[in-house]
Every structure is written in structure tokens, then in C-alpha cells.
Fold AMMECR1 domain-containing protein.
Amino acid sequence: MSSVFCGTKKQKLNNSFINKVERPSNGYHDTVAIPDMCYFCFDVLYCQLHSMDPPQTPNFTNEAYPLFVTWKIGKEHRLRGCIGTFNAMHLHSGLREYAITSALKDSRFTPITREEVPRLTVSVSILQHFEEAEHYLDWKLGKHGIRIEFINERGTKRTATYLPQVATEQGWDQIQTIDSLLRKGGYKAAITSDLRRSIKLTRYQSEEVSASYSDYISQRCC
């Protein structure tokens, strides 16, 4: 199973990033992501941090999708951890796994602590509608997430991805997004037009739902 990072802080990507997205055999529905998925992620993290038994099986769908879990902290929503997979996973086990992985095992950050939990916001992204782009600009800002494959200056294939919201949150245009993604993937040399044109790009869409800790407490206390 492959784990990949999202967000804009510099990192070294996992070379085991998958080459082909596995889609659910039963297809995609119009709406999948719901707030209960975020509350479940908080449940999972709380139980983990307090050495409690895992939470009960949730009531939302257990169909299989590629997914990401993102933790942010504070009023400024500073990235605190974001890891996901392009393999289609059953949502109950997938969210359970990546709620913990993104909170405690994102190598860019120290593990989230108990004291930080009340300041957290969690987002669940369900990835859908994967398409091979015709060229490196064949995608739309704010609509598509992108995953690129490229050959670095050492002749090694590398990959990197941004979820759909990253470019707009950073105020980037398409070229800036591509160049940032190349740097994220570890490309050190000068970025040229020929390099950009050589990129193999896959675009995808994401259903995202978010909840703050206060949302979680309000829901669980009802």
C-alpha cells in the first residue's frame, strides 16, 4: 500500500508511489464525503493518543476509494499533517489508518500531541474521476488535483501530487503549481519549458469535507 504526502512544505516523496490508480469495481457515487468521516477521524486520533480501544465501526459507507486525511491547526489553519493513498481502500479501514498516519507519522512534522487536539481541524478528501491529461496544462485550477510523473536530473522517475485546493490556497497559477510540484518531487535543476512539456500528468477531482474540534465535540455531545 502506498502513502503519499500533500501540502506545500518541502519533503522527499516516497519512491513507491503507485503508477496506476486502482478504482472501485462498483464505480463512484455523486456524493461520498460526509461530516461523519471527520468525526470518525477525531475518534480514532483521540483513542490512539489516550491508549484506548479503537472506536466502533462507523455508519457511513464502506465502499473503496482513494483518500487523503489532512490535519491543520490553529486559526491560521497551519498544515500539521497530510497523508493519503491513491489505492482504493475501504473507507472504514482507510480512514482509520490515515487518520493516525497523517497525524503521527508525517515525516515533515513532529507527531500531534494530546494538547494540540482542541485546536485541530481535519479534512477528508475522497478522490474520484481520474483522467490522463493531454499535456501539462490540461487541468483547471480549483477543480482538479494533479499528479505528475517526470524524470529528474539523475534520470530517475519521480512523482508528486497536489490536491485540488492547494493551488488556489497558495494563490498560484498553473505554471507556478507545476513548478512547485516539480520541486516537491525533488527536482533541483533549472525548470525549463521542455521539462514541463515532458511531464506525464494525471488529473483528478476530490470531494472534501472538513470539521473542527468544536464541530466534533458539538456533534458527539448531542
